[in-house]
Amino acid sequence: MTVLKLPTFAPSTLTNAASLIRILALASIAGAAISSRLFAVINFESIIHEFDPWFNYRATRVLASQGFTEFWNWFDPTAWYPLGRVVGGTIYPGLMATSGVIYNILHALHLPVDIRNVCVLLAPGFSGLTAWATYMYALTKELKDESAGLLAAIFIGIAPGYISRSVAGSYDNEAIAIFLLMITFYIWIRALKDGSVLYGTLAAVFYFYMVAAWGGYAFITNMIPLHAFVLLLMGRYSDRLYSAYSAWYAVGTLASMQVPFVGFQPVQTSEHMAALGVFGLLQLVAFVQTIRSYLASKQFQVMLQWFLIAAGVIGGLAIVGLTITKTIAPWTGRFYSLWDTGYAKKYIPIIASVSEHQPTAWPAFFMDLHMLIFLFPAGVILCFKELREEHVFVIIYAVMASYFAGVMVRLMLTLTPVVCIAAAVALSSLLDIYLSVEEPAKPDSNGVGETAPPGADVPADATVSKKKKKEVAAAAAAAAAITPATTATKAKTKSSTQYGIFGIDTRLVVVLNAIFMLVMFVLHCTWVTSSAYSSPSVVLASRRPDGSQNIIDDFREAYYWLRQNTPQDAVVMSWWDYGYQIAGMADRPTLVDNNTWNNTHIATVGKAMSSSEEVSYPILRKHDVDYILIIFGGLIGYSGDDINKFLWMVRIAQGVWPDEIKEPNYFTARGEYKVDDQASETMKNSLMYKMSYYRFNDLFSGSPAFDRVRNQQLPKEGPKLDYIAAEEAFTSENWIVRIYEVKKEDPLGRDLKTANAFDGGKKRKPSKPTSRRKALVA
Amino acid sequence: MRTQLHLLLLAAAAAAAAAADLWPTHQRLAPSFINTDVARTVELSSQAYVKASYSIQSLSDVDNDVFYLTLSEEEEKVTGWIEAKVKGASGGLQVKRLGQHADSLVYVYAITLPKALPKGESLTLLIDTIESHATYPKPAFASQVDNHFRVYEADGLVLSPYETTSQRLRIKAPTPNIRSYHIPPALEALAKDEPAVKSGATVTFGPFKSQPPTATKDFDLAPYRVSVDFEMNIPALTVVSLKRTAEVSHWGANLNVQDEYVVRNDAPELKGQFSRLDFQMSQHARRMSPVIIPALSLSLPSGAHSVYYYDIVGNVSTSVFRPAPKAAGRAARLSPQNAQLDLKPRYPLMGGWNYTFTVGWDAPLGDSERWDEVNGRWVLAVPFLTPLPATPIDSAEVKIILPEGATDITVHPPFDVPLIERGHHITYLDTIGRPAFTFHAEKLTERHDGLIYITYKVPTAAHLQKPLAVAAAALIVFSVMWTLKRVDMTIKK
């Protein structure tokens, strides 16, 4: 029985139409995914965002203009002055290589696209590919069916959790990494299901690409072994698993070692040991399986026991031994911080000082995933219903990624794909049931409840493919599982209860509800994307009183000033956040940048910023610093400024010089962090404080100065800076960026304080000689 | 002025221009005229505008139709633009640079008179020159709020191959605030009465007594240099280099022009630091030093649209483009108003500061190209540059890109361009590339904004080249996909 009479078509027409619609749907999903990421380009311009992308962009320009060999051997003397940085060996080159290849192909086709536009649009372009890969992943053979695949593709296409890392201009490793993650997982599942060495190798190739592109490759390195291990524990060892895993591991590991930055890590560090261990285990199990086929079961039992014990003991001892002898590197700090969220704050303040390394707040889940977050568990539960190998994978992935997303904000990114897939499975199951025109026979029609065997007695249904029917049946079962409570109560009242959905109104209610949720989801995604994730952060936008957009462009103003009006080799000191931007936009050497590899160097900058001028000056001169750049938001209320980051500078400096820099000294007596009258003397004397508020008072012509970020009134007397270390060289329009020039030593050999006083026409105070004598006595 | 150059002759012409730099020694500058009165007036602004009137009398009857203007080494270095006309007549005279005289080392320009001047007859020539970078700041450094002073130096006597009966030099400063002026004793001695008089913003040197020809080997001008030290209240912007690219598209009926500027504020270099506070306060009080350049104003052709302005780090978001008002009627069509681009650099340009930016726009091709029915050719006219008022341009490179497949090309630059290169340029979906001409010139002024005329033919086949190439490529891709889809590559078990 059916609720609706559907028109009938020839099977070939249906297949063709379905395939056409599928292609169109995928194309429009890719289009939606790409265009929803273009808010930043439309609202602002085609510009590289934030911090790390500026380095990637700069590296890509080197690659595009000088070729791959030069790029590979690139030593950048301007970064980490005076140390320099071996760039080729300290980056994941996958992103730059991808852009470089695209750039060269376009130019070979006589499409002279600017390298900047290639970089800006790379992330949206790859998000389209991600949607396709997700679709492939969630396909019939692998997980459920094509409709689930399309839904998953739509979800991943516009889910804010992924958009946050892939808007146009956000030219970072994650931009291509999520695509690689999905395609590697997809091919791994294919390899596993077919037991195909070819697909295993292909998975290894994409794994290599992933290793070359993102440090997060460790997620794959551990997910696939974990999957294999769980399958082993479930007693699902098969030759398919053996060949797929062995092919992936052997080829993938060798390939990943070709990336200079990774080098021998795959055989030396703890993070990679799980993959090696599972590889060994699989060999053992395969060996045991082979032997079993030759031995009687009794003998086999005995042999197996001894064999397993011996292998376990030897393997365990080997790993412990190697760890003790330091052949295998111990877990890194970043890894520990995944288990103990307080770890980084205590031991590695640099990691903790990065905002994206903070634990995730609860609202972030809803913000980034909206309705997917509550469809997600349903989808995971549905995976338990079938529990084929790919379902096991999704379940493991869901568990692991949920945990990591809770620990670190940025790992929300790895959670998003699995949430999309699970939610798509759940939603498509729901829709399958409620969109099906099948209706069970009414129990009172012939007394005995009999579910109409699908297709058996309905000739009109001949058009529906066999597969489809099977799914409908499965979905109906799933639906029954979703609403066990209601059906259970019904079952009690009637002995011959009939499961199923009757009538068109019930269907409409559910389907309309689902559509409503989907619409809300789209609206939410668009809103979040446009308002929260599409700001380049290099350019800030505000609204004028009349509602028009006002662009605050202080960063570029100051960087461009540096680029145009300072000597090419002038060294700029700033907090490490701005290192990449200075290198990219101002093209000047920097002391520290966002590649935070040298803690001491960063601590040196922290010390120079947080000490008094007398202490800072020798540090500045020793590092040839010509200009100091600071960010100050006090005038227009830009909260991400250096005074707000100041405590991290203090903490990091304290980590290296605990005797000289002490965090408590920067708080008031009552333990508050203040910049007003009550601020501690250490705070007021620090170079950062002085540079931030230098001549800030004068702007308020008499009335007390007011810091709009911290909502505090500043002391009446502004800090005096023109003594020792530096003098103002440039301040941007809204005072966000302030640049100070470090004074050179006095040519007459006087100390700068005396020289300055002399220039100012001040008489030597008569008290000076006495104080000197005192100092001598002391 | 406008020389017609055929393609084949281009290289030869360039070579000739280089060779013409040395004026052959054997050619004597015959004293065929006498300067009865020379009055030079120098208007000092960001550049020095020299307006000279030469009253000349002919001494010879034989084809006396070329007047030689000579410039000293210093003058030659700064002079960017020379034009001459007969007083009272309309239309300019041809001025041809002959190069340096090997004997007297002066630079010689030949001015061709409308007709030969018979012996004894006189004529008044008006010769206007523009001197760039002819002044220098004194002191070389100044703070943000200081007044700025510059010094202008000039030859007190006019350099001429002819005898000069009477002459005088007037220098007009932008303000009456002239700190000092200097006249050397040697020149003072030549004065008819008062050697130098200052009245208001003008200093007058002379008139001076009769002089024999000065453009000779033995005469040394150095002891006759005069100078004026004056207050400067006009910004002194310099375009260090300008790169213009104009690309013609027949399919899009579009002319895209893109200018890459490198500019510098030539005011005295900023002493010490830039204080935003002082700058903002002086801005509020409207007492900003006039030599600070907070914004530039470029006037673009009336049809300009899709204007973009960026520098190395992205859009110059501080700037505003104001399209030309859409006026109707014949009057508007005859004298269309220009569109305006108020380009505000990211930071105010203080003395000595640099800035670079790129401005580009699209304009309807019909505004600058006509179909010449008679000869069956396209005639394209592109201005050599967009003048920034009173701004010298130290070097310029103008590249004009013609449509793909353009043949039979002739090029007519507006003035003698030292170097013209033929190149080729490949852009979106081109197969063989487009012919491109690059004009290199130096020492330009706002008067060098004449039109470059280029005529060419485009065969119909060349028009169709691009769509056919794209269609063919698409066809190949589709057929390959079609074939691959239908080939079964699985190994049958």
Summed up:
The complex is a heterodimer of chains A (778) and B (493). Chain A has 35 helices and 10 strands.
Give the CA-based shape of chain B.
globular
Tally of DSSP helical segments of chain B = 6
Poorly predicted tracts of residues of chain A:
445-495, 766-778
CATH architecture of the domain at 565-744 in chain A: 3-Layer(aba) Sandwich
Strand content of chain B: 35-45%
Radius of gyration of chain B: 28 Å
CATH fold description of the domain at 565-744 in chain A:
Rossmann fold
Q: State the helical fraction of chain A.
A: 55-70%
Quaternary class? heterodimer
Report low-confidence residues of chain B grouped into runs of 5 or more: 1-21
Query: Termini of chain B, distance in Å?
Result: 84 Å
State the CATH architecture of the largest domain in chain B: Sandwich
The profile of the biggest β sheet of chain B is: 8 strands, mixed
Per CATH, the superfamily of the largest domain in chain B is tricorn interacting facor f3 domain
- The count of β-strands of chain A is 10
Tally of structural domains of chain B: 2
Secondary-structure-based class of chain A equals mainly alpha
Into which percent range does the helicity of residues of chain B fall? 10-25%
User: Largest inter-chain interface?
Assistant: A-B, 32 and 27 residues
Number of helices of chain A: 35
Q: If you average the pLDDT of chain B, what whole number results?
A: 84
